[in-house]
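ESCALATION

Customer reports they have been waiting on this structure for their group meeting. Please prioritize. Original submission:
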Amino acid sequence: MGIGEIMAAIAAGAGLLSVFVEVSKIKINPWSSLFKWMGRNMTEEVKEELKEVKKEQERILEKQDALARQRAIDAADAIKAEVFRFYNECKKRERHSEAEFNHIIQQNKKYESLVEWLKEPNGVYEMEYKYIMDIYAKCQKENDFL
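Update from on-call: job pushed to the front of the queue and completed.
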């Protein structure tokens, strides 16, 4: 075996070794670059699908927020209607039990928390509730419940 053949064998071995080993001082890493390029191309479709899923998730969350807000508005309106009915009964001098007054007081607490969450004013409701509470205080003082 001559020097030329030895040099050729060393060059072939170094070439073969370079396929599997990267030298860190060399800035160009052909295998890493190739694998990164292949990885990017393989995952590009997945990334696009993920973006679409995120957009859809945002749309669903917006719809959920809108539905929750509408449910809160509907619940507040129902409570307000119940309190107005109770107020009208009190104005007509209809008598009520202490339990009925306590129910209206609990409903008012729910209503206030809903109004606070909705960040909307409650308007004339306050005057009607104050009147109910005045009647309640009078009934408590005179022990004049139904």
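Sent to customer with the following note: The mean pLDDT is 84.
Escalation resolved.
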